[in-house]
Amino acid sequence: MCEVGEDYRAPAGQPPPRPGREQKCVKCKEGLPVVVIRAGDAFCRDCFKAFYVHKFRAVLGKNRLIFPGEKVLLAWSGGPSSSSMLWQVLEGLSRDSAKRLRFVPGVVYADEGAACGQSPEDRAKTVAEAKLVLQSVGFPWHIVALEEVFSLPPSVLRCSAREPVGTEGAYKAAVDSFLQQQHALGEEQQSLPCPPRPPIRAGPPTAGQTEALSTLFSSVETLTAKEELLRTLRTHLILHVARTHGYSKVMMGDSCTRLAIKLMTSLALGRGAFLAWDTGFSDERHGDVVVVRPMREHTLKEVAFYNRLFAVPSVFTPAVDTKAPEKASIHRLMEAFILRLQAQFPSTVSTVYRTSEKLVKAPRDGCAAGTPGPRCLLCMCVLDVDTADSATAFGAQTSSQLPQTQPPVAQAEAPTVSCCCTGMGGARHCCRTEEDPRARVIEQLCYGCRVNMKDLPSLDPLPPYILAEAQLRSQRAEAEQIQEYLLEDREDEDARPGES
Amino acid sequence: MPAPQCASCRKARAALRRPRSGQALCGTCFCAAFEAEVLHTVVAGRLLPPGAVVAVGASGGKDSTVLAHVLRELAPRLAISLHLVAVDEGIGGYRDAALAAVRRQAARWELPLTVVAYAELFGGWTMDAVARSTAGSGRSRSCCTFCGVLRRRALEEGARRVGATHVVTGHNADDMAETVLMNFLRGDAGRLARGGGLGSPGEGGALPRCRPLQLASQKEVVLYAHFRRLDYFSEECVYAPEAFRGHARELLKLLEAARPSAVLDLVHSAERLALAPAARPPPPGACSRCGALASRALCQACALLDGLNRGRPRLAIGKGRGGLDEEGPPGRRGSQPSGPPASEPIPGF
């Protein structure tokens, strides 16, 4: 493959020898190999397990973000990668004391059956299977239904400040003091895992909520937008669970392969500015809750083999795009493309992954440094839509401008955002005078979320917390606008500028 | 059912729908809108100041034909003068026909034409010779890498010969989108860091270059050429099927079918990529052989030619580059380019 940086090798006289029956594990040179990783490295069962576990712990140890004693929420979808992650945490916590993982885990499982169109019986069956697995794992677990987004508070969308990340010294000091504490408490207390507490649930979702959720998802026109919406709502829900129960970290089980696909998909969706947050090890855009991805160096192939060899339980849950044709959404297309390319050029996934490691969480050079701007309403990244000078602002303008001769459509039902504010963040007053609630929400979104919203003809089915927060933010912005004109020493005037 | 009325002049019947906005327009109005958008790109980005002598990279294909035509229409308004520069890479059966098309265009539009040939500039190396040389290594040929680097050098040289102050090329939005996809798939962090934006201002002795058609979608370029009845050469280069860009192109077509705004979204993403400082290319120094602007000891064109001359064509394509300072056996170092032009190596897009 024309990979940049591919080393020159003299043309080989004959192809490399194929692994024969007599070959031994490349690591210990003794055991019989059971699996071939990468290109031709055959491992025996024990060496493979050691390699796999070592990678998991190395990723956690290298980044030093998880402090001992911290409460960490494991986001479990039932799929192979997150099940593997769960298992690694379970094993890591039960090791002998010197090398033990030292955080306090909890598990959350989100039941998304309503969005995928599953019948209530199927949903109940899946949830029951999930419960079995969770009970056997033994951590405190939470099962939440996606319908609960309809009762989320708008504070979910606000980024709370968090204490600054500790330095290297602070991490070491924390570990040392934790160890001393444990030692003082005595041995017995360490060996027992905490008994499974009763599940914390808000009660089964009401039929009305389920109805509302399926209305929302069936109103979205394309599968791409559906998947993105589902991802957003799921993130908010997990964030809420984490905040309510005091978890400061969330672990997601994205594998290397999935992250490479996610990176290319985000690129195609217009989220190039946020790649480092979307695919990096840690994602601190929410402030107090940090999302980490400890499985990011395990390829899907390794995960699959590990799960099979060591009987890791997982639960199959159909997703929004199950059985969808390949061309149905950008996500499916990218997945099929990358996996096909991987079959032809085996280094594709690792190349994309390595490039993703070089991304930094900063605005591009030349953009104004200093106070970060407003954040996107849905994905909570700093807005990346520039003033009219940007090349794509112009391109987007030409694509969304509808000719003036079309009769003005009813404002609440505007199929596309036809005013010129799509591309330019600056000129907001023309929207304001029309009081178009849709435009008000759109202008608080980043580029990628705006493109997704185009496939949502009406914003009404959205969960109330989103619309409430949008309202609040625009009122606050209006208040700021008139702030300079208010005279402060008038006592008879009602000092409530936000209401109009 | 008769076609709707043109949305702009409302007199003629609409002849097409614009791919991005779905607007129905007649031929004349569409061409006028297209030209207006290119004008806006040039003016807003301050790409071509008045009085500029502009060298248009003309390959005979649809993009450079449309570019030359549009710039010729806009030249009085922008107060620029145009020269066509065509590059002859020496690809038999392909380039000759393309050059014939360029000559016809130059004659029809009365624009001065200069042809620069690889064989003349690079010591007898034509693309066919390069392809033969790289074919021996068994894996897919990387002759497209050579062609890209050397063509930009040749274009720069041609521009200098006509005394140009700016170089323009006909890359459209689809090209930019394919480039960013390709660079990610190949892991080319250096090019990713340099890419995006409307062109390079030109560092050191290099001429500033830009891409006025950068925001136009490929479909619109073809539509424009159709309505203006432009004569262009539409075959694919004989080496194109082996290029990696083909994968990116196929992916882009699929993405566009799933979401029409995919091309613009990719261009938006490319503009906003933030790469670590270590991934960016080091500040440029001077090539030790020809004195041109270079990030390493040798500029990329000299490095590639060096590899070719030593019979190790993949020498400069790879991480190591360690063999570059070796002295090859005396017999091999036959045809060195005498006094290669002092021009900058190519920043890829």
Automatic annotation (TrEMBL), chain A:
<dbReference type="Pfam" id="PF10288">
    <property type="entry name" value="CTU2"/>
</dbReference>
<comment type="function">
    <text>Plays a central role in 2-thiolation of mcm(5)S(2)U at tRNA wobble positions of tRNA(Lys), tRNA(Glu) and tRNA(Gln). May act by forming a heterodimer with CTU1/ATPBD3 that ligates sulfur from thiocarboxylated URM1 onto the uridine of tRNAs at wobble position.</text>
</comment>
<dbReference type="InterPro" id="IPR014729">
    <property type="entry name" value="Rossmann-like_a/b/a_fold"/>
</dbReference>
<keyword id="KW-0963">Cytoplasm</keyword>
<keyword id="KW-0819">tRNA processing</keyword>
<comment type="subunit">
    <text>Component of a complex at least composed of URM1, CTU2/NCS2 and CTU1/ATPBD3.</text>
</comment>
<feature type="region of interest" description="Disordered">
    <location>
        <begin position="1"/>
        <end position="22"/>
    </location>
</feature>
<dbReference type="InterPro" id="IPR019407">
    <property type="entry name" value="CTU2"/>
</dbReference>
<protein>
    <recommendedName>
        <fullName>Cytoplasmic tRNA 2-thiolation protein 2</fullName>
    </recommendedName>
</protein>
<dbReference type="GO" id="GO:0002143">
    <property type="term" value="P:tRNA wobble position uridine thiolation"/>
</dbReference>
<comment type="pathway">
    <text>tRNA modification; 5-methoxycarbonylmethyl-2-thiouridine-tRNA biosynthesis.</text>
</comment>
<feature type="compositionally biased region" description="Pro residues">
    <location>
        <begin position="193"/>
        <end position="202"/>
    </location>
</feature>
<dbReference type="GO" id="GO:0016783">
    <property type="term" value="F:sulfurtransferase activity"/>
</dbReference>
<dbReference type="GO" id="GO:0016779">
    <property type="term" value="F:nucleotidyltransferase activity"/>
</dbReference>
<feature type="region of interest" description="Disordered">
    <location>
        <begin position="187"/>
        <end position="208"/>
    </location>
</feature>
<dbReference type="GO" id="GO:0005829">
    <property type="term" value="C:cytosol"/>
</dbReference>
<comment type="similarity">
    <text>Belongs to the CTU2/NCS2 family.</text>
</comment>
<dbReference type="GO" id="GO:0000049">
    <property type="term" value="F:tRNA binding"/>
</dbReference>
<dbReference type="GO" id="GO:0032447">
    <property type="term" value="P:protein urmylation"/>
</dbReference>
From TrEMBL, chain B:
<dbReference type="GO" id="GO:0016779">
    <property type="term" value="F:nucleotidyltransferase activity"/>
</dbReference>
<feature type="region of interest" description="Disordered">
    <location>
        <begin position="316"/>
        <end position="349"/>
    </location>
</feature>
<dbReference type="InterPro" id="IPR014729">
    <property type="entry name" value="Rossmann-like_a/b/a_fold"/>
</dbReference>
<keyword id="KW-0820">tRNA-binding</keyword>
<feature type="domain" description="Cytoplasmic tRNA 2-thiolation protein 1 C-terminal">
    <location>
        <begin position="285"/>
        <end position="315"/>
    </location>
</feature>
<dbReference type="InterPro" id="IPR011063">
    <property type="entry name" value="TilS/TtcA_N"/>
</dbReference>
<dbReference type="GO" id="GO:0005739">
    <property type="term" value="C:mitochondrion"/>
</dbReference>
<dbReference type="InterPro" id="IPR000541">
    <property type="entry name" value="Ncs6/Tuc1/Ctu1"/>
</dbReference>
<comment type="similarity">
    <text>Belongs to the TtcA family. CTU1/NCS6/ATPBD3 subfamily.</text>
</comment>
<dbReference type="GO" id="GO:0002143">
    <property type="term" value="P:tRNA wobble position uridine thiolation"/>
</dbReference>
<feature type="binding site">
    <location>
        <begin position="57"/>
        <end position="59"/>
    </location>
    <ligand>
        <name>ATP</name>
    </ligand>
</feature>
<feature type="compositionally biased region" description="Pro residues">
    <location>
        <begin position="338"/>
        <end position="349"/>
    </location>
</feature>
<feature type="binding site">
    <location>
        <position position="63"/>
    </location>
    <ligand>
        <name>ATP</name>
    </ligand>
</feature>
<dbReference type="InterPro" id="IPR056369">
    <property type="entry name" value="CTU1-like_ATP-bd"/>
</dbReference>
<keyword id="KW-0547">Nucleotide-binding</keyword>
<feature type="binding site">
    <location>
        <position position="87"/>
    </location>
    <ligand>
        <name>ATP</name>
    </ligand>
</feature>
<keyword id="KW-0963">Cytoplasm</keyword>
<dbReference type="GO" id="GO:0002144">
    <property type="term" value="C:cytosolic tRNA wobble base thiouridylase complex"/>
</dbReference>
<dbReference type="GO" id="GO:0032447">
    <property type="term" value="P:protein urmylation"/>
</dbReference>
<dbReference type="InterPro" id="IPR032442">
    <property type="entry name" value="CTU1_C"/>
</dbReference>
<feature type="binding site">
    <location>
        <position position="170"/>
    </location>
    <ligand>
        <name>ATP</name>
    </ligand>
</feature>
<keyword id="KW-0067">ATP-binding</keyword>
